[in-house]
Amino acid sequence: MRHADMAEQDDPGDMSAADALRFLTPDLRDFLADLYGAPVSIAQAAVQLLPFGSRSALLSTGLATADGSGSGPAGETGLRLTTLGLEVIAEAAMPAEPEEVDRLTSLAESIVAEHNSCR
Question: Where are the domains of the chain?
Fold first, then answer.
């Protein structure tokens, strides 16, 4: 099943790296950002260690393709990062725009102020 926003896309290949990041959990984005600068072979190996849900997210967004027949000892299929996947790794590693940091800081401050006013 695809995410509702993805239904608007004809093909995950039509997505930009910035668009694809929206479909990933913060933990998965952080994991991918940590792979920035690593050799592709290391990044390919690292994504094999992800849990099922994260692997599914990579497949469903077109960041990876299934590589192999699933004939491993546990019936697993390897993942191969696509060009989009490598672009997302680079995008995830980019620092947030100052405006976004300011917006999130303001949002956090208002949540804390609201929480403190309820005490």
Answer: 4-117
Q: How much is the pTM?
A: 0.66
Distance CA 5, CA 94 (A): 23
**Residue 7 reports pLDDT greater than 50:** no
> What is the share, in percent, of the chain residues with pLDDT greater than 90?
47
H-type helices in 1-119, by residue range? 4-7, 17-21, 26-34, 40-47, 52-60, 83-93, 98-117
Closest Cα partner for 14 from 82, 94, 97?
Answer: 82
CB 76 within 8 A of CB 58: no
Neighbours of 32 (CB within 10 A): 28
Query: C-alpha distances in angstroms, 38 versus 6, 45, 58?
Result: 29, 11, 18
